[in-house]
Amino acid sequence: MDVSDLKVFEAVARLGSMNRAAQALHTVQSNVTARVRALEGSLGVTLFQRHARGVTMTPAGERLLPFVGRMTQLLADARTAVVEDGVPKGTLHLGSLETTTALRLAPVLGDFARTYPAVRLVVTTGTSRRLLDDVLDRRVEGAFVAGPVDHPDVHQEVVFREELVLVTTPAIRAVHELKGIPDLRTVVFQMGCSYRQRLESVLADAGIVTAKPLEFGSLDAILSCVSAGIGVTLLPRGVVAVAEREGRVAIHALPSDRAWVDTLFIRRNDAYVSSAMRAFVETARADMSRTDR
Questions:
Q1: Could you give the residue ranges of the DSSP H alpha helices within the chain?
Q2: Distance between CA atoms of residues 268 and 2, nearest Å
């Protein structure tokens, strides 16, 4: 089993197509097909079922896939450990909630970039569920997510607490007024967002019936829709403070048992912690502790 063949296998499995995998790997389709066939030959099993729309993994392929990420990461960790000299450098790929990126990360990223110019920092945004999957599947080395997180393979630490508030159009002066709105919509991030789940619980507890949610991928789009009276959402107070001051939205406090959420920084327990990762975590702790004073 060749490691390069495993990387090709992972790309085909992730993209569902030999052609798309070839594009992602900057090679030709015939090379991808040959690598997959070579891997199947060495293992003595069929890894993909070919069809007109692409490929589908066989049960054998599904059993192999989890090991590919582990092996690839183990080799990368070994390479990093060998060349480490205590000076942060190289690429550090992290994940973050969009709200955390907008509200908290800008000063952290700025300080880190100035202090450690040899590190190339890549930040991917997503929902808590997706970011947890990214950490577990080793697509990112660490991520900021909304707690709680309960997984035996994850190391976590609380980096700060956020107060969540219900956000509506300024025309809504009290939460009970939402009961009189027919077909009230929630305006939320895609499935897997913990704020979305809490919003549904808050409205249900208040006896407020909602229609099918409107899903968006950006914070700006959500705030624009709420400001226009299309629906309601749930976000950290700090994220919507400017929009409230400008009169674009109204915010409504929640009961204390619903209002507070911990933002966690998570990483795999078994992952190698590089100098770049240690330096980033120390920078984030220092910056966020100053912000919370």
A1: 3-15, 18-25, 29-43, 59-83, 98-100, 106-115, 128-136, 194-205, 219-227, 237-245, 256-259, 275-291
A2: 25
Token couple for 192: 């897997």
Cβ neighbours of residue 256 closer than 8 Å, sequence gap 6 or more? none
Burial 51-82 (b: 16+ CB within 10 A, else e): eeebbebeeebeebbeebeeeebeeebeebee
List, in order of start, the domains of the chain with CATH numbers: 3-63 (1.10.10.10), 83-160+261-291 (3.40.190.10), 162-260 (3.40.190.10)
The answer, as to whether pTM is greater than 0.85, is no
pLDDT digits (tens, 9 = 90+) for 25-81: 999 999 999 999 999 999 999 999 998 888 999 999 999 998 887 787 788 778 878
Sort 106 into a burial class: Cβ within 10 Å, 0-12 / 13-18 / 19+: exposed
- Collapsing DSSP states into helix, strand and coil, what is residue 76? helix
